[in-house]
Write a structure and sequence with these properties.
Structural class: alpha/beta
Helix content: 25-40%
Shape: globular
Distance between the termini: 33 Å
Largest sheet: 8 strands, mixed
Low-confidence stretches: 1-19
C-alpha cells in the first residue's frame, strides 16, 4: 500500500473505552447525539463495480450563452465541472428562461444527463412540448457515474477568470437548485436524502483549526459562503463521541442524490408529461439546424468539447469504487485522503488526495482497479480499530 494511504497514526492512544465513549456522548446536547454507526465491510472482494467519470470544467464557469445556428436558436447549458447535479435546476431555469424568450411551442434538448433531464422538465413546466435527443440515455451517461452529493461549487470556475459577476449568477443557480431538491425529499425510493458525514483527523482539534492547506495552483473559486444560511454548520465532536479512533472528528450534514432512483424519477416525470426521446448522435453544431424544433438547449456536458470544438472544457477524471450496499450504513467519512459515502445503490469509495487538482486535465476513462483496492484497504485499516457503540 502506498504510504500516503497508511494509517500509522492510528495507535492505541486514539482508542477509547466504552465508558469514555458514553461520557463523551453525554457532553453533547440530546439533539446533537451521535447515532449508532454501523461499520462498513471494507473488503476488496466486495467491490462489485468501478466507474470513471470526466467532469467538464470551464475556467469561466458553465457556458450559458445563446447563438443562432442557421434558423435555430441555441441555448448552451454545459461545463459545470463537479457541480452538474448540484446546480442543474438553477442552471436549467436560466437556460429555459432564455429559450422561452422566443415563445416556442416545441423545444429540443440535446443530452440526457443531469442538465438535460432537468432542463427538459423545466421546459415542460414552462409549457413547451419537449423532445430529448441523445446518443445515450441516463444509465450510460457520465452524469450517472457522479458521486451524488450537493457540492455546488466543486470545480465550478477559476476565481481570476470567472470574475466577480459570476458569483451572483452562481448564487442564483445554487439557491434555485437547493429549493427544488427540497421537493424531492421523502419520495418513494428516496431519490434525495440528507446524510451525516464525518471528517476524521489524527491531529488534535486545535491543530485542525489552525491547519491551512496550501492553495491550489490554479485558484478554484469557492462560493459556499454565499449560501451559508442554507447549510448546517460543521460540529466539532468531543473525543470518544464516535466509534472512530482518532482525536479529531468533525461532523456535518449534506444532501445525497441516490442517482438511480432520482434519474428514474426524472425520466418518469418527463415521459408522463408527454416528453419524447429520440436516439441521435450529433457530429457538429450545424446539425442542430436540421431538427424540427427551432429552439434547442444544448446540454452535452463533456461531449461538448468535441461537438462544439470547445477547448475551454478541461476534463477532470474521477474514479469510484462501489462496495455492495449495506442498508444499515447511512453516513460518510473522509480520512487521510480517502472517502466513503453510503448510497442506496452502493457504498462509494474514492481517493481524494490532491484535492481539486486530482484528475485535472486527465481524459483517461480506463478503470484503475488498484486505486480502488487501495482505498478499500485504507478504510479496512480504519475499521479494524472501529469501536461500535452499544
Amino acid at each position: 500500500m502506498r504510504g500516503a494511504l497508511a494509517l500509522g497514526g492510528l495507535g492505541l492512544a486514539g482508542c477509547t473505552t466504552n465508558g469514555d465513549a458514553d461520557a463523551a456522548r453525554d457532553t453533547l446536547p440530546v439533539y446533537d447525539a451521535v447515532p449508532r454507526l454501523a461499520p462498513v465491510r471494507a473488503r476488496a472482494d466486495r467491490l462489485f463495480d468501478i466507474t470513471v467519470c470526466l467532469r467538464p470544467f470551464r475556467a469561466a464557469g458553465p457556458r450559458l450563452d445563446t447563438e443562432e445556428i442557421g434558423k435555430t436558436f441555441v441555448v448552451h447549458n454545459y461545463g459545470h465541472g463537479g457541480s452538474g447535479w448540484s446546480l442543474s435546476w438553477g442552471s436549467g431555469t436560466i437556460a429555459v428562461r432564455k429559450a422561452m424568450s422566443k415563445s416556442p411551442t416545441r423545444i429540443a434538448v440535446i443530452g440526457c444527463g443531469a442538465l438535460g433531464l432537468t432542463s427538459a422538465r423545466l421546459a415542460q413546466e414552462a409549457g413547451a412540448q419537449v423532445t430529448i435527443y441523445a446518443r445515450e440515455l441516463m444509465p450510460k451517461t457520465r452524469s450517472y457515474r457522479a458521486t451524488g452529493t450537493f457540492t455546488p461549487d466543486s470545480r465550478i470556475a477559476l476565481t481570476n477568470v470567472a470574475g466577480p459577476a459570476f458569483g451572483d449568477l452562481w448564487e442564483e443557480m445554487a439557491r434555485i437548485s437547493f429549493k427544488t431538491y427540497r421537493s424531492y425529499l421523502g419520495f418513494p425510493g428516496t431519490p434525495v436524502e440528507w446524510s451525516d458525514r464525518y471528517f476524521l483527523s489524527d491531529l488534535s482539534p486545535e491543530e485542525v483549526a489552525a491547519h491551512h492547506p496550501p492553495p491550489d495552483p490554479l485558484g478554484f473559486a469557492t462560493y459556499s459562503g454565499r449560501i451559508r444560511d442554507l447549510l448546517p454548520k460543521t460540529d466539532v465532536l468531543p473525543p470518544g463521541a464516535t466509534p472512530f479512533p482518532v482525536p479529531s472528528v468533525r461532523r456535518t450534514s449534506n444532501m445525497v442524490f441516490n442517482i438511480p432512483d432520482y434519474a428514474h424519477t426524472l425520466m418518469t416525470d418527463f415521459l408522463m408529461a408527454g416528453g419524447m426521446i429520440a436516439h441521435r448522435e450529433f457530429h457538429g453544431p450545424a446539425e442542430f439546424d436540421t431538427l424540427k424544433e427551432k429552439v434547442v438547449i444544448n446540454c452535452t456536458g463533456y461531449a461538448a468539447r468535441a461537438l462544439m470544438n470547445d477547448n475551454s472544457i478541461v476534463p477532470v477524471r474521477g474514479q469510484i469504487g462501489w462496495l455492495i450496499p449495506q442498508p444499515e450504513v447511512n453516513y460518510g467519512i473522509v480520512y487521510d485522503g480517502v472517502s466513503m459515502l453510503a448510497r442506496r445503490d452502493g457504498i462509494v469509495m474514492q481517493d481524494l488526495r490532491g484535492g481539486d487538482m486530482r484528475g485535472y486535465g486527465d481524459d483517461n476513462e480506463t478503470v484503475d482497479r488498484e486505486e480502488s483496492v487501495q482505498v478499500v484497504e485504507a478504510m479496512a485499516g480504519l475499521y479494524a480499530r472501529f469501536k461500535p457503540t452499544a
